[in-house]
Amino acid sequence: MSLILYLIGITLLFFLFLNKTSKARVIDAFSIWWFRIAFSFVLLFAIHLIASQFGFFIPINIIFGLLIAFLGVPGIASVITISVFL
């Protein structure tokens, strides 16, 4: 637990030493990833609702959400493929 707190503290310390434009780029990239993760869970929920009408079960979990956020459209296809064949 203390190791995680040390790493967070060191990361925040490095963030404080960045100049203004670098801070803006870091915050921008961070906000884009949060939006992608949130949108992937909304999309995963919609896929779950649609698939349940056809008798398929697609679980909503963090792994599938991150997979969709990271891969995009191929992530959606892989989640559907994994759920259908497993």
In short:
The protein is mainly alpha-helical. The protein has four helices and no strands.
Give an account of the 3D structure.
The protein has one domain (about 20-85). About 85% of the residues lie in helices and about 0% in strands. The protein contains four helices and no strands. It has helices at about 1-15, 20-55, 60-70, 75-85.
- Give the proportion of residues in helices: over 70%
Report the span from N to C terminus: 36 Å
Gyration radius, in Å: 18 Å
Percent of sequence in beta strands: under 5%
**What coarse outline follows from CA principal-axis ratios?**
elongated
Q: Low-confidence spans: pLDDT under 50, at least 5 residues?
A: none
Mean pLDDT: 89
Key features of this structure:
4 helices, mainly alpha, 86 residues, 0% strand
